[in-house]
Amino acid sequence: MQTLHENSQKEIGQFVAEDFRTAALFNKYKIDFCCRGNRTVEEVCTKNNIDSNLLLDELDAIMRSSSGQNIDYQSWPLDLLVDYIEKKHHRYVEEKTPILRQFLDKLCKVHGANHPELFKINDLFTASAGELASHMKKEELILFPFIKKMVKVKLSNGVLQTPAFGSVESPIAMMMHEHDNEGVRFREIAKLTADYTPPADACNTYKVTYAMLDEFEKDLHLHIHLENNILFPKAKALEAQFEN
After folding, report:
1. Residue 11, SS3 per DSSP
2. What is the pLDDT of residues 83-132, one digit of tens each?
3. Which of 19, 97, 126, 227 lies in the 20 to 30 Å Cα band around 90?
4. pLDDT on residue 7
5. What's the CA gap between 136 and 83, in Å, rounded?
6. For residue 138, what are the CA distances in angstroms to 88, 117, 157, 233?
7. CB burial class (10 A; 0-12, 13-18, 19+) of residue 56?
C-alpha cells in the first residue's frame, strides 16, 4: 500500500492507466489526464489550488472499490490493444465526424447571428476532424503495423529489422505532439460551449450537437489515454528488449 506522500508524487497518467475510473474524478477537477498525464498529483494540485489530501482520498476510494466496468487495459497484449484502439476509437471518430460537421454547419446558419461563438466552435472542430483523420492514418499505416510486427517477432524469437523511421520513439513523439494539439482545441471548444451547456434558446439540434461534442471529447480522452499512458510506453519498452 502506497502512502499519501508516495501517491502525491505519482503521475496522473499512472493513476488512469491502473484504473480508468479515476478519469471521471480528474475530469471533475478539470485535470487533463491524457495529453498532460505526465504531471504529478502534487504538481496539478499546487497549480490549480486543489486540496491534494482530499483528491488523494477520493482516488483511493475509487481504486479500492470494485466495478465490473473497470477494464484492465494494462494487462492486454499490445497487438490486442492496437486492434481495439483502431476498431473502437478510430472507427468512432470516422463515424461521428461527418454527423457533427453537418450539425455544426446547420447551427451556424440558423443560430450564428445570435451565437457567434458557433462559428469558432465549427472552425475548431473542422480543423480537429482534418488533423485526426491524418493522424489516424499515420498510426494505421506506420506505427501500429510496426508495434504488431514487434509483438510477432518477439513471440517467434526472431530478429527485428530496423524500420525506415529508425526507432519507434520517432513516430510516437509525433503522435504525442498531435495529441497535445487536439487537447488544446477541445479545451477551447469546451470553454466556448460552457462545458457543453446549450443556451436557453437552444433547439433540439443544438442540444444534440453539444451532447455529441461532449461525448466526442470523452471518447478522445480515453483514446489518447490508451495510447499516451499505456500503448506508447509499452511499445518503447518492447523495442528496448530487442536492443538488449
Report:
1. strand
2. 999 999 999 999 999 999 999 999 999 999 999 999 999 999 999 999 99
3. 19
4. 81
5. 13
6. 17, 32, 27, 18
7. buried
Angle between helices 41-48 and 52-64 (to 10 degrees): 130
Distances in whole angstroms, Cα of residue 97 to Cα of each of 83, 129, 192, 213: 20, 6, 19, 10
Amino acid in the structure at residue 106: K
Q: What are phi and psi of 35, to 5 degrees?
A: -65, -30
Those residues whose C-beta lies under 8 Å from the C-beta of residue 132, and which sit 6 or more positions away, are 93, 97, 182
CA dist list (Å): 128 to 19, 36, 112, 135, 184: 28, 18, 20, 10, 10
C-alpha 129: how far from its chain's center?
15
Q: Is the dihedral of CA 125, 127, 130, 131 positive or negative?
A: negative
- 66: confidence class by pLDDT, cuts 50, 70, 90: low
Answer for the pair 16, 68: CB distance below 8 angstroms, yes or no.
no
Count other Cβ atoms within 10 Å, centred on residue 175. Answer: 21
Grid cell 472499490 is found at: 65
Residue 68 has what pLDDT? 43
SS3 40: strand
| Alpha helix positions (H), 65-168 | 78-84, 91-111, 117-138, 144-155
Task: Dig out the grid coordinates for 130 from the structure.
Answer: 482534418
